[in-house]
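Hi L.,

You mentioned the student needs an example of a multi-chain input paired with its predicted structure. This one should do, with 400 residues in total across all chains.
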Amino acid sequence: MAEPGLRERKKRETRTRIADAALRLFADRGFDRTTVAEVAAAADVSVKTVFNYFPAKEDLFFDRSEEIEQSWLQAVADRQPGEGPLAGLRRRSLGRFEDHPGGPTAHFRRVLAGSALLQARGQQMWAVHEDAVAAALASELGELTGQVLAHQVFSVHPLVLRKVEQWTQDGVGDDEVRDRALALVNQAFDLMDRSISNVS
Amino acid sequence: MAEPGLRERKKRETRTRIADAALRLFADRGFDRTTVAEVAAAADVSVKTVFNYFPAKEDLFFDRSEEIEQSWLQAVADRQPGEGPLAGLRRRSLGRFEDHPGGPTAHFRRVLAGSALLQARGQQMWAVHEDAVAAALASELGELTGQVLAHQVFSVHPLVLRKVEQWTQDGVGDDEVRDRALALVNQAFDLMDRSISNVS
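Structure written out for the whole complex:
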């Protein structure tokens, strides 16, 4: 039984090595000007191996897409007795901004800013994640409400990232930025919770 | 007193003629490949005149930006006795999707899709409008709530546009698409209203 475990681990390591090499090249040269052959060379694997792990060049950049969708769905399911349907989603959003108030790494953001193709793909992926969360919420809250709330949940992140950027430009300190970011997340979820709580 | 009215009208006509000529050229050649000199020639005015009306080339595309911001602020103020603070914003959003369920014209969307610069500028403008609405709501609802609700209001439009596109691709008829779009807008505002209504 040790054999498949080792094999899986090796595969994950190779996958990570390729994605890391790709991000470094993309950050240096831009996404559009980097070829898959260059990524393969930098990661010391064949082009065929790269395509085995990443069917499209964009997948090299959004290599954690599936993992992220799973984490959103787990967040919907992550609920203690007595908690409302958004409790896990609130925890996920808070954790996200506790760990990285400024959002993705500078490398990641620079590559994204330089490629309209990646931006379009990113929005498409974000919409797919949102629809998955909407479907998960719909079973409890109905289709329309599930769709609107999923969209509101996914809208919290861009709002917070935009405000964090503003505050940072205004010279607000890191701790204060984090506090404000978390307060904004909490306020958004407080409002959402109240919008679906039964008014008795 | 007739004189200034005529002069104002002439100015508005010139402004519109320049913006219309610009959109036609942008749609034909793309935003990045069109020069201000070409726009001036197509509108039969000097380059200096174009810059008098539109300080930056992007302003030729987003020529209705100020008008749109004013309409958002009027929507916040547009409130009958007994109505909540979001009533006018709901009416504005419903009106928007009653008139044009598919969003901006095909020309406008094609030009926007072809230019990362315009997309960035569009998002920036959208954020400025949102912050103006947030400030207007904050006086009644507090700063955090105003910010979150303004963001939720502005998030309704992208959600509806995305769903309209999906439904249209799925072959749903125009009338049904419009009905669904309006139902989504109403549901979003119902939830927002409930989130700020006093639970007695």
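You could point out the following to them. Chain A has a mean pLDDT of 91. Chain A touches chain B at residues 116, 119, 127, 144-145, 147-149, 151-152, 155, 159, 162-163, 183-184, 187-188, 191-192, 194-197, 199 (CB under 8 Å).

Best wishes,
N.
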